Amino acid sequence: MKGKGCMDILVLIAILLSLCTVFVVSKNLANGIVSGKYFWFYTSITILPALAIPAAIIKRKERLSFKLSDLLILLFCIAAVLITLHHTGRLTNKCLLLIFATAFYFYLRIFLSGDNKLIRYIVPVFFMLTGLVEAIWGLRQLYGFTSSQHNLFKVTGSFFNPGPYSGWLAMVFPMAFWYAAPLFTSKTKEKFDFRNLNIRTVFVFLKTVSPKWVKILTGFLTALCTVLILPAAMSRASWLAALGGCAFTGILYGLQNRKITDRCKKYRKRIISFSFVALILFASAMTGLFLLKKDSASGRAFTWKIAVQTIMEHPMGVGLDNFGGAYGEAQAAYFASGAGAEWEKHVAEGVEYAFNEYLQICIEAGIIPFIIFIAFVIYTLSLGISKRNYIPAGALISLLIFAAMSYPFNVLPFVIAFVFLSALCVSGDTGKQETKKLYPKFAIWAFLIIFPISVALLSFNSSPNSQFSILNFQLNYGAYKQWRTTQTLHGMGLHREAAEEYAGQYPYLQDNIKFLFEYAQSLSKSEQYEKSNEVLGKAIQISCDPMLYNVMGKNCQALKQYELAEQSFTKAVNLVPNRLYPHYLLAKLYHETGLKDKMELEINIVLSKPPKVESMAVEEMKEELLKLIQN
Description:
By secondary structure, the chain is an all-alpha fold. It has helices at 2-19, 32-45, 47-58, 68-88, 93-112, 117-142, 162-180, 186-191, 199-207, 211-233, 236-256, 258-266, 268-292, 294-313, 323-336, 342-347, 357-365, 367-386, 390-403, 412-426, 441-460, 473-491, 495-509, 513-525, 529-539, 546-558, 562-575, 581-593, 596-608, 616-630. The longest helix is centred in the N-terminal third of the chain and has 26 residues, at 117-142. Mean pLDDT is 81; it is low at 430-436.
């Protein structure tokens, strides 16, 4: 019994370390807000396999029941990885994350199974505490006590912008709402009278506080801080996610409380009238949310339209991490055909994400794996409700709503949260029927032993050009650390020296679009135009940023490959029609090649077309073209 208790504590620490990924911000790595979280997670998750084998020996009498969700998530992982290997011939960053997230799910299933009260009590409360820490972090940023992670935004928490930050708070909010709800029941009011609140009554209450009250007070404090900071983040998707998750948990909490159900029956007519008014207010609020950032909402609607067309063109998927390239081709073809309306040209952008994770999963993994993923989500939620795991189910509902309007599965902490909440929903076996559906012992032991050994062998024996090179975490960490130093050379204008350093980091960072763009720019500015275009050719497979085509066109122009340069600039124009810079580059190209009529046409576009965002760069372009046409 003593060994079992110690093992539970060690497992608990390992799980909590994985959940702490959300707080990690590294100053030693390039893009440390993102990359630091990845290396923390990959390091912390290695503790679980080390604990899994002794835990299986100590708890050999406990068996893990089989669930359909286990099979579904395994099938989704295998299908998505195979499709990616088919398209790219190697593992990408997102492939690696999917593999480790799937392994994390199964380790959580093992450790959360059985009657493990310590883990099942502390872990959900700790997860809620991450929301409290983030909310306080954001409040400190809002009032100037702590610096933001982004120069353009005041409130970001430990994330790189307010979108994911507010999504995290929205996901945790239903859990806090559920834990805090008993604070306002009649029994609780009798025990802790808010009307006679003073220091003495608080001190007396804290002396007799129980674990249940720890959850209640923590939930109340988390909910309060979230309500204070969430509006400041200005994320409409997070507001809807928080509202949807709270509606779900509120309804289930009401159904569990007999007094609430009795009152609902007694005042049925009033509730119907109130619901009708609430529906009208909700519709009005939705209209207001649309008008709050009209261009942003229209832009997302257009992105979803092109994403659907991309799915129709690639029903079997394009591979994980290849969304940008496939989407960019579809958007450029759409505008090149002349089908785009003026408002679509105005709101179009070279997006990194689909702003709808379901569409992006379907584009990257294909229709069949997408159906498997949806089946996994539906089964997990239904099982969570049937097992009365309402708290993780409510948080998962918020995350799924947020995923329909944003990009949480492209941000590591949300992937961890999705796996964690899914495992919580599925775990907690109850009933005699569960004992008939058990994993065979050899299957558990095979997973516990084969997976970590396989990853270790592949990581230590993979060369820089191997399809498994991404598994060499030590070299990957070194590449990100060195990249930070190389960025200094790039910023100082030492492009040839920077290009030499980038070349050594390329095998490990070739899925990072920011790295590829910096590397291509250094090559271009050090007059290595052909090599720069090789790097850009890799970049346009995973991104639809029109600047990639602009740099490629300038490289071709320097090489006197004018036809290819024109194609690249035209591709940039079709990709994001509201940008003036590609027209400016085309005008200079036509001036160099002596095509006066085409040059004047492009100059007129730059001079007459209103820019989407006014800037000094736009004015400088116009002045230069005016001088060009005058001469």
